[in-house]
Design brief:
35% of the residues lie in helices and 16% in strands. It is α/β, with parallel strands linked by helices and 339 residues long. The strands form two sheets. A nine-stranded mixed β-sheet has the order 1-5-3-6-11-10-7-8-9, with helices on both faces. α11 links the parallel β10 and β11. α4 (81-89) crosses α12, α6 (126-152) runs parallel beside α7 and α7 runs parallel beside α8. It is globular, with a radius of gyration of 20 Å.
């Protein structure tokens, strides 16, 4: 585990602290006021064996990779979301109105070695794509290991960055003993054939292997549905979705449909940022929900559900296709909305 996960230490946290010096002083003596940012206040963990002792209820982890996206013939960039998130999230202010004590930035899954192996692979080559798929399988194990550890400690993983391939190891960790349900806010089903591993078949793998029971999707753009996907959904009462409908969309109706389909005493919440129109992501599109609509939808699900999700996974954001600050602030806002 130590080789496959990097803890976010106090030393790392210090790199995100920005001190506003008192301008009435010629030299730096003290800060201009008593304001404190999340970076100055957030809990960190020095030992993975001590997770249960942490005060925070949400343990935030990053997965800086885009191997699964590339294996799905998508465009790279999701590997940069974790750092963008950290910069914005840790600059939020710790106040009586916004208490950081509910969070701990635990760290990130180690991906550097896998990313280096994937660096020169070209997905259009079948041989190279096969190698990318193999690397995703190695990543699956690393993600499952840390997610299982967090869940066993009684904490909730909040997972940022990477491709939607990481839904599979997260569902495996959550549904290993008892199958879990899932609500996925996404423009795509990610129900491609279970041939190899990539960002397009995380949910189909989880269903096939018995980790995922009932699956509901919100925001599906039907022009991206393949016939095999349509056939699969028509044959299974456990899988259903709401299509993206720009004319007759009502947030609470979509939330209630999802809540009715899954068992919210045992479910996961997945959010793919390509569901937001024009948002910098792996599969950026000109149509989709607004960011505020996504935000309202997420909060609606959390309020209506019988219990909190086993985990929340926010993926596919790719800062390189927009502004880093835009992506970082959006992801930070979603996480900071958590009660």
């Amino acid at each position: 585990m130590r080789d496959h996960f990097q803890l976010f230490t106090k030393e790392k946290r210090a790199h995100y602290v920005s001190i506003r010096c008192d301008l009435n002083k010629e030299n730096f003596v003290k800060s201009e006021d008593e304001a404190a940012s999340f970076a100055q206040s957030i809990e960190v963990c020095e030992d993975l064996k001590e997770l249960a002792k942490l005060k925070a209820k949400y343990l935030i982890i990053g997965i800086p990779e885009d191997i699964g996206v590339r294996a799905n013939l998508g465009r790279a960039g999701a590997s940069e979301a974790w750092e963008s998130f950290l910069k914005s999230f840790l600059s939020l202010q710790q106040t009586s109105l916004n208490d950081v004590s509910r969070f701990c930035v635990l760290g990130n899954v180690t991906t550097k070695d896998l990313m280096l192996q994937a660096q020169n692979l070209v997905a259009s080559s079948h041989k190279d794509r096969t190698q990318l798929s193999g690397l995703v399988k190695l990543l699956d194990q690393r993600v499952s290991e840390i997610a299982s550890l967090i869940i066993a400690s009684g904490k909730t993983p909040i997972v940022i960055g990477g491709g939607h391939n990481n839904s599979y190891p997260l569902l495996r960790a959550s549904g290993y003993s008892v199958p879990v349900d899932s609500i996925n806010i996404d423009a795509h089903t990610d129900l491609r054939a279970t041939a190899g591993r990539h960002s397009g078949n995380g949910f189909s793998h989880a269903i096939q292997e018995g980790y995922l029971k009932s699956y509901y999707m919100i925001g599906i753009q039907e022009n991206y549905l393949s016939q095999p996907m349509i056939d699969l959904m028509e044959q299974s009462d456990a899988i259903d979705y709401s299509p993206y409908d720009f004319e007759n969309f009502e947030i609470q109706q979509e939330v209630l449909k999802a809540i009715k389909h899954v068992d919210t005493t045992n479910f996961a919440l997945e959010i793919d940022m390509d569901v937001v129109a024009h948002f910098p992501s792996s599969a950026q599109a000109p149509v989709g929900y607004s960011f505020q609509e996504l935000r309202n939808m997420m909060n609606g699900i959390l309020k209506k559900a019988s219990s909190f999700p086993k985990y929340i996974h926010i993926c596919e954001a790719a800062p390189k296709y927009g502004y880093e600050n835009q992506v970082g602030k959006a992801l930070a806002t979603l996480v900071n909305d958590l009660p």
